[in-house]
Specification:
The chain has 2 domains: about 1-175 and about 220-350, Rossmann fold; about 175-215, no CATH class. It is about 35% helix and about 20% strand. It contains 13 helices and 12 strands. The strands form 2 sheets. The protein has a 10-stranded mixed β-sheet with strand order 3-4-1-2-6-5-9-10-11-12, sandwiched between helices. Helix 3 packs across helix 4 (about 165-175) and helix 10 crosses helix 11. It is globular and about 55 Å long.
Length: about 350
């Protein structure tokens, strides 16, 4: 009988977590000293039976059901911090956040000042090297305030990022960036599109910013990393990538390449950044895959029928965010990615 006193509460906790909904709240990390204010969105397991609302629902994009400011299920929970791409926001990976919460994780996504939908600064004001720090500050805030999420486990923390967010989380793992590599012969080595992006990000604009980008921006609390079609990966130094010691899963957009039959040359031609990073990371702790049917923006939130036409009318050229590979279905791509990510994190962040 005494054993039941301990076992029954544990079983009740596991049952409640298994049937938990998705709670959601927003906070702002205050600006102080050299830090800037950062908006953070947080998803977490909740047992609340309150009516959910659709988060991020727009005429173009499908929202995710959440319960705002719900009481969290007691933790500690494993934590995943998310990093959006250039010009993006927390909405971009909300679909993945929901899947992770259903698997028992707390998820937090800062909007990176200077490179977010809500704050696109001029290139001479963008401080790209602060992006990894935004995620570290988010981790600090959640570790210090268990009331926000029910508590997070300090030894079970991972980071996931898409596009420039993928670069950000590899920096957190120990990758170090050499601005000269991407600016010395930019047009010849990278092409016009990349060079415009490098200019918009202020990469290589002066010696001080290049030095700040080259610094060690890692966070030892990060135990696993997932990059989703990252960029600009080719500015990360081979030596720094080879020294990364935590598990990393690198997922790239396959475009029109069959990930099962593509040659190494095909992969290099269509997915240079992910392929480059995967080539220099330690093979024993690195998983590299191309997601069949995916293009770069396939990792973003799902679009509604007719969304591409709607977006094109309001912002010509931007409808590409709704484009996937020929015959591909974004929801199926998301299900595959979510399954791969949860399986990878389950092994990389085991229960103690």
């Amino acid at each position: 009988m005494p054993r039941l006193v301990f076992i029954l509460p544990l079983l009740l906790l596991l049952v409640s977590a298994a049937h938990a909904g998705t709670g959601f709240r927003e906070i702002t990390l205050p600006g102080k000293n050299t830090d800037r204010p950062v908006h953070v969105s947080i998803w977490y397991p909740t047992a609340s039976d309150a009516a959910p609302v659709l988060l991020g629902e727009t005429p173009a994009f499908i929202g995710q059901p959440v319960i705002r400011d719900a009481e969290p299920v007691p933790g500690p929970h494993p934590l995943v911090v998310l990093s959006h791409g250039y010009g993006g926001s927390w909405r971009n990976l909300a679909w993945l956040a929901a899947d992770l919460v259903h698997a028992g994780y707390v998820v937090a996504a800062p909007d990176h000042p200077g490179t977010t939908t809500f704050d696109m600064r001029k290139s001479d004001a963008v401080e790209l090297w602060r992006r990894p720090g935004d995620l570290s500050r988010t981790i600090d805030a959640l570790l210090d305030n268990a009331d926000l999420t029910g508590g997070v486990a300090s030894d079970r923390i991972a980071a996931i990022g898409h596009s420039l967010g993928g670069w950000t989380v590899v920096e957190l793992a120990g990758g170090r960036f050499d601005a000269a590599v991407v600016t010395k012969n930019c047009m010849a080595d990278f092409g016009q599109l990349y060079c415009r992006i490098f200019d918009a990000l202020g990469i290589g604009r002066d010696a001080s910013s290049s030095a700040a980008l080259a610094a060690d921006l890692s966070d030892p609390r990060i135990r696993a990393v997932v990059s989703l079609d990252l960029g600009p990966g080719r500015g990360l130094t081979p030596a720094s990538l080879a020294a990364v010691h935590i598990p990393i899963m690198v997922l790239g957009a396959a475009a029109d390449v069959d990930a099962d039959t593509a040659t190494r040359a095909d992969i290099a031609a269509t997915n240079k950044d992910s392929g480059y990073v995967a080539r220099y990371l330690p093979p024993a702790t690195t998983k590299y895959s191309l997601i069949p049917g995916s293009l770069h923006f396939s990792f973003m939130q799902p679009c509604k029928p007719g969304a591409a036409e709607l977006i094109e009318k309001e912002a010509p050229g931007e409808s590409i965010v709704c484009r996937d590979g020929i015959g591909a279905d974004r929801e199926m791509i998301h299900r595959q990615v979510a399954s791969m990510v949860t399986d990878f994190l389950g092994k990389a962040l085991p229960r103690q």
